[in-house]
Every structure is written in C-alpha cells, then in structure tokens.
Amino acid sequence: MPPPPPPSPTKPSKPTSSSSAPKSDWVETETGNKVSRRAQLHGTQHIVLGGRCVIHPGVCIRGDLVRPSSTSTTNPTSTTDPKPPRSSTKPSPPPTAISLGKYTILSPHVLLRPPSRPSRSSPHNLAYHPLAIGSHTFIAARCVVEAAQVGDHVVVEEGSVVGSMAILKDGCRVLRGSVVPKGMVVGAGLVVGGRPARVVGEVGVGWGWGEDEGGGGQGGGLREVWRGVGRGGVGSDGKVGGRGQEGEG
Predict the structure, then answer these.
(1) How far apart are the C-alpha atoms of 206 and 203, rounded to whole Å?
(2) In whole angstroms, how far apart are CA 79 and each of 36, 65, 74, 85, 88?
(3) Each residue of 17-46: pLDDT tens digit?
(4) Do 208 and 189 meet the contact criterion of CB atoms below 8 Å apart?
(5) Using CA atoms in the order 232, 233, 237, 240, what is the torsion angle rounded to 10 degrees?
(6) Phi and psi of 131, rounded to 5°?
(7) Contact, 207 vs 213, CB < 8 A?
(8) Is 142 exposed, middle or buried (0-12, 13-18, 19+ CB in 10 A)?
(9) Residue 54's beta-bridge partner residues?
(10) Handedness of CA 79, 85, 86, 87 (dihedral sign)
C-alpha cells in the first residue's frame, strides 16, 4: 500500500504592511540549521535537525509518516481506591520520524521518507520506522532516501534511490543514479553503484571524497556549504560557488 500523499502546505500569511522588509529565502534556526522557505517539511514535530544542517529548495521531508506513540501509564490504582491520583497517565514526547546530524546537506528536490514494513496487525497497512541520518553527510539533488540508517560522512550522489530499511554505514558512497535495494547493508567506506547497487570499490582507493558531486564532500567542505548558504555562495544545485537564485539571501 503506497504511503498517503503529503498534506497540503499552508499558505503563508500576507504582510500587514507594504513597508515590511523582504524576507530572506532561508530560515535559520537557533542551532544554525538553514532551511529554504521553498522546502516542504511535513510533521515538523517529528523531525529532528542536529544543528547547522542545510535543506535546499524543493526538498520534501515526510515527518508525518510516523508510528503512533503509545501513552505510558503510571501509578495504576484499583477502582476501590478512595483517593485516585488526578492523572494516571503521563504524556510521552512526540516520536521521531526523521533525524539529521550536524552539517548534513539535503540538495534540491531530495525526498526523505521513513522506511516501512507491512503492519503485523494489518498486512494491508504500513508500519513506519525512524530514519536516522548522521553528521557531515551529503545527499545530492533528486535523491529518494527511505533507509533505516545513514551514517556519518556518507555521500549519496545525484538521482540515487536508497530503498526501505537499507543501512549505509559511515564513510560509504553511493554513485550517481544507483538504486540501493531494500534492506541492503553497505559497509563502512565502501562504494556502491548500479541498478541494483553492488560494491564496486572503496573510498580512497580510486574513489576520492567530494571532488565532483557533493560540494566538497566530507568535513570542512560541508562546513563551507553551510557558510555559503544565504550569502550567494551556493547555487541551486547545492554546490559551493554555484550560481542560482536559491543561494541568494
């Protein structure tokens, strides 16, 4: 059963005064995350950004696809108790559907969707599981990611698909246009490519970091991407030094 379509985004309210200063194309949070106003984040209460992440225009994050949380019961009492407590339940925090680590970059038109499996109670319905993405990870334009886990310093090149419940361990790389099958585990430092993807090498052995796609690849390069956003230093393709209106603040 395909996932439900995302809810219609709410229309922004019109400015109350014609003299109001024009808004930036980017919103920066207290922890330094830079989110394009043209990105779509559904179910924001279920999305966790680790700090200094960049979410480009056209990105869609389906935080609304989340497993319902159960309410924990505390201090159960008998019905004969003359003085029952005022509240026998404690509200639990909203469950996390998608989390991103520090300096993680989502390029234009990336789709993040939590992985799913058929529900045990009703096989015709889907049960969603959390999608966790590590730090200093770069996901290039037009990728679809439904993995269970994406590690630190991972590069997913343009137009790739990472299937449901797949695991990309630290430092691995997915080559352009690849399709990582459902449930596949890509070991640390490995390079995979193809449709379906298979191991074709190792990072650092004929495969460098971020010299083509990825806007600088690991570590310092992604810091430069973050610094350039909103200052005209990052184009619509998400690369440092690119030219495009999406990078102009």
Answers:
(1) 7
(2) 53, 38, 15, 11, 12
(3) 444 545 689 999 999 999 999 999 999 999
(4) no
(5) 180
(6) -110, 115
(7) no
(8) middle
(9) 34, 105
(10) negative
Pairing relationship of beta strands 198-203 and 190-193 according to DSSP bridges: antiparallel
Which pLDDT tens digit goes with each residue over 76-122? 444 455 555 565 566 678 899 999 999 999 999 999 999 998 877 76
Encoding tokens for residue 221? 């390069």
> CA–CA separation, 44 vs 246, rounded Å?
22
b/e burial code for range 45-62 (CB count within 10 A of at least 16 → b): ebbbbbbbbbbbbbbbbb
Sequential DSSP letters for 54-67 = EE-TT-EEETT--P
Please tell me the pTM assigned to this model: 0.75
**3-class state of residue 222 by DSSP:** helix
DSSP helix/strand/coil, 247: helix
Place of tokens 């959390």: 130
